[in-house]
Amino acid sequence: MSQDITEHRYENGKPKLRRFHQARWDEPIIFELSREGQRGILVPEVEDEIRDRVGDVMAPLPQYMRRKRPPKLPEVSQPQVLRHYVRLSQENLGTDLNIDVGQGTCTMKYSPKINEQLVRMPKMADVHPLQDEATVQGILEVMYRFEEILKKISGLDRFSLQPGAGSAAIYTNVSIIRAYHEARGEAAKRDEIITTIFSHPSNAACAKTAGYKIITLYPDEDGYPDLDALKAAVSERTAGLLITNPEDTGIFNPRIQEFVEVVHEAGGLCFYDQANANGILGITRARDAGFDLCHFNLHKTFSSPHGCGGPAVGAIGATQELSKFLPVPVVEFDGSRYHLNHDLPDSIGKIGPFYGVAPVVLRAYAWVMSLGPEGLREVAEIAVLNNNYLLKRMLEIPGVSAPYARGKRRIEQVRYSWEELARDTGVHSEEIGLRAADFGVHYWTSHHPFIVPEPCTLEPTESYSKEELDEYAAILAHVAAEARTNPELVKSAPHNSTIHTIDHAPLDDPSQWAMTWRAYRRKVREDGESGPTKE
Amino acid sequence: MTEDRPIIHPYIPNSVSAVKKQMLKEVGAESVEDFFEDVPEELRLKKPLDLPPPFLSEHALKRHVEGIVEKNKTCGQYLNFLGAGCYQHHVPAVCDEVNQRGEFLTAYAGEPYDDHGRFQALFEYASMMGELLNMDVVNVPTYDGFQAAATSIRMASRITGRRDVLISRTINPDKLSKIRDYCKPELEIKLVGYDPETGQLDLDHLKAEICATTAAIYLDNPSYLGFIETHGDQISRTAHDHGAICIVGADPISLGVLTPPADYGADIVCGDIQPLGMHMQFGGGQAGFIATRDEERYVMEYPSRLFGIAPTSVSGEYGFGDVAYERTSFAVREEGREWVGTAAALWGITAGVYLALMGPQGMAEIGEGVMCRSRYAMMEMEKVKGVEAPVFQSPHFREFVVNFDGTGKTVEEINRALSARGIFGGKDLSEEFPELGNSALYCVTEVHTKGDIDRLVSALREVVE
User: Fold this and answer.
1) How far is A484 from chain B (nearest CA, A)?
2) pLDDT digits (tens, 9 = 90+) for B290-340
3) Are B336 and A207 in contact, with CB atoms under 8 Å apart?
4) Is the confidence at residue B250, as pLDDT, over 60?
């Protein structure tokens, strides 16, 4: 009997929620697919002439250095390996599939497919980083041009494209702050870094890793970072301020320039974490607010895909005064040739192999060149319009609020609170997210600590249509309504996922946790062998 | 963008003017300017960004970018003998097929329910690395092998509560620079010398330097200079005798034939997975791994995410999640271990695909094949007048130092002449290791045929004889 879903699709002219079900392949662990003797790929054979000439190449090694037993990797034919991974990919939601507005602070925008084709050309993929500069002029030109673009967007004077993501960029900036104070003989006394609670956790964590004492500022009643608290915090011990703006609440700090001045007067440096730059591209710049340093996430704002968590680039910008501390090498152009300059005597040195993640830079460059100055501003304006539109839709849902800055506009994201709904129903933000997954969308609570109770952070970027924003809001409205009528349904979610409710307890229990299949077999199934033990 | 002929950008659906107007109306705004009310007038950019005009059509953009990138020469066009941390191995087509799938490529931080596939793929990656390394714990990849080494050292310092670190002098100087920057606030680094004949770490020097405040000894095996350290067992024993941790930077592609460092006493093993299925990408394919035994005091010092397997409410179903999440900066900001964030997860998934394809047989064959070819290259290059290959009398894996002092030419001159013959010669070491004179680091992998190596040797003859 054929089924008619016309009625399901529309009700009163409006689309209803999807009858989504995540792929469920019950896919085994790759080791369970292993059949002795199968091969996934063959390796080029060593020619006989070479073999005859070199003899037993293992012979010069001491016995103990020759692997006795081959690694117990799975033995799987190629079609089965492919099918296994394609099935796993289907059990994953990317921005290509879902209305990915639920991962606020991460700018889940569209990653253009043409840029993917460009980075996968042999002219990009098969290039060794140590080739003679004459043979890598293309990629050096891309890096140089992209640095020029970032200078214009930020107003700062020099960039390094080397840090491998946002947190690496923050750490590198902290290293530069330390180098600056060292050069002035003040490094020992300036041992404090100030940040705000609504700046990304890595601002605090990276500065701590670099050896600093952390002072965290909390918001005032309106949600703005507290200027009086900053004034009380600065001293001759202040090395610098690490601050996001707009913060993760989506609120732009209008007194940002005063923040910078207060820190400068105390002798500290100011670093602008521009992870949330998407809504202010072409609107306002780091330089204009007086910042010394900044960073952009090319995998967020500049469209390079997130890759399940990298590869990525955190591009760091510095004023002329601080540019001598940037990591080496920097890309230079003498009018006819692009050149990698390793000769920066005051540089903090090498911070990673080679020059960073070149394909991410290429994607970012291509993205900017597809938009131009007006297009970039359009990105910011539509991202902000989308956000304020979603804010309107969200606030129509009973039980949700947008704490702080009441009645005010937001920039590119909002940190919402389900506090009222949780109070009324006992359903928590995390549970709302798990139920939302039943309708085919991703949802994230927020970074810890939950200063905003029962939080979620939505960032719609410029990539989603009005209808998609309506759909996302409709899903959350539906889930919120379920929380009131049938809270158990929400609390027992997900129902349409690849898997059912996970028992997280073993993941925090050293006697049960298992981060590899071998550990799982040894500890949980008790049919595996022991791992190495300390001699 | 004029009012009468607006550009509707294909990536921005709501830039259609009617939609924009409707949305503005619904939120009660006159214009988008209203949303920026918190941005003070004096901070506003009054004019458009001074950027080049765009290539609006996809075709024009493609031509523009291709026109620039076209200027690169590839290791397909040239015969390449460069390595030094980025390696030209064959990349199986299935690796590319999997890592270009949008479901993986464009995902990020989903929960174990919407992104079960990512969790399973990365758990499997860690599991296969665990077999290769004979270790029970492997992290979700960090940025690169440099970061993996630097973090391993800081982990060792936290585990032992000590601050001194001994590092083999044959380490890649760039990696040492990274480690110094990363360890600066807390650790004291001392270098341990090497035997000029063999390159091997100087055990007497190690024994003289190691003491009760030594947190760790770090060495690469195979070393940066290509030879295999053959005293790993004695080095780790020396470390353990003094209560220190032995950290070995390993090349995963060597472990089909070489003994995993855990088996000769390494406590933490780290390195870069670029050889396992990542294109070179001008250095953009690097990703770091850290592996340890499954001991709580080690596990709790990882800053990285660790994905563990867990039961679900359906018996037999596999679920996944974060192990000991409370140790991370995501959970507790500056109270966590170092930090965690976006790094290189897609390359972890890809390396998993690579290991699944290669299997035990493939890894053994590639390891042995690389050693045969590099050995052949050394033997043939040694025959060229004035050329010494290898400089160090030790077994080598994939790379080896070649000295050109006897040719009267600098490496730079030789590489320029090779380049004119369509060959990328080895990395010039004369600045990094001045004591080695005019030397270069050559790299040979399974992609090189006898014909390729013979072509290098005859070109060298032309250049130096």
Assistant:
1) 23
2) 999 999 999 999 999 999 999 999 999 999 999 999 999 999 998 999 999
3) no
4) yes
Tokens 């309506």 — which residue?
A470
Closest Cα partner for B65 from A145, A127, A110? Answer: A145
B422 touches chain A (CB under 8 A): no
**B416 has a pLDDT exceeding 80:** yes
Residue A218's CB is within 10 A of a number of other CB atoms, namely: 11
Q: Which residues in chain B have their CB less than 8 angstroms from residue A88's CB?
A: 116-118, 120-121
Which among A64, A282, A520 has CB closest to B259? A64
Q: Which pLDDT value is given to residue A10?
A: 73
Write out chain A residues lying below 8 Å of B138, CB-based. 515-516
Name the CATH superfamily housing domain B79-89+363-464.
Aspartate Aminotransferase, domain 1 (3.90.1150.10)
Token pair in block for residue A336 = 């006819």
Which parts of chain A have pLDDT scores under 70? 1-2, 7, 13, 529-535
**What tens digit of pLDDT does each residue of B364-415 get?**
999 999 999 999 999 999 999 999 999 999 999 999 999 999 999 999 999 9
Tokens of B417: 């002449």
Whether the domain at B79-89+363-464 and the domain at B93-354 fall into the same CATH topology: no
Interchain CB contact of B9 with A (< 8 Å):
yes
Taking CA atoms, B421 is separated from A456, A519, B64, B80, B463, in Å, by: 60, 52, 30, 12, 10
Structural domains of chain A sorted by starting position, each given as residue range(s) with its CATH number in brackets = 25-90 (no CATH), 119-368 (3.40.640.10), 503-535 (no CATH)
Which ipTM score applies to this complex?
0.97
Q: Which residues of B touch A207 (CB under 8 A)?
A: 334
pLDDT in the model for residue B451: 98
Q: Which two tokens stand for residue B361?
A: 């047989």
Q: Does B131 touch chain A (CB under 8 A)?
A: yes
Residue of B nearest to A44 (CA): B446
Question: Is the CB of residue B72 less than 8 Å from the CB of residue A123?
Answer: yes
Residue A52: what residue type?
A: D
Cβ of B313 under 8 Å from any chain A Cβ? yes
Query: Token pair of B104, please?
Result: 């993986």
CB contact, 8 Å: B59 with chain A?
A: no
What pLDDT sits at residue B2? 44
- Counting one residue from chain A and one from chain B, the pairs whose CB atoms sit within 8 A come to 753
Distance, CA of B360 to CA of A73 (rounded, Å)? 5
Mean pLDDT of B232-261: 98
Q: Give the nearest partner residue to A71 out of B97, B131, B325, using CB atoms.
A: B131
Domains in chain B: boundaries: 1-45, 79-89+363-464, 93-354
**Is residue A358 less than 8 Å (CB to CB) from chain B?**
yes
- The pLDDT of residue A142: 98
**Interchain proximity B286–A118, CB inside 8 Å:** no
CATH of the domain spanning B93-354, picked from 3.40.50.10490, 3.40.640.10, 3.40.190.10, 3.40.50.720: 3.40.640.10
Determine the pLDDT at residue A6: 72
Instruction: Give A1 to chain B, closest Cα distance, Å.
Output: 32
**Residue A203, C-beta contacts closer than 8 angstroms, at least 6 positions apart:** A170, A195, A242, A243, A244, A273
Contact A522/B136, CB-based, under 8 Å?
A: yes
Q: Are B436 and B428 in contact (CB under 8 A)?
A: no
Say yes or no for a CB contact (<8 Å) between A508 and B349. no
pLDDT for the residue numbered A408: 87
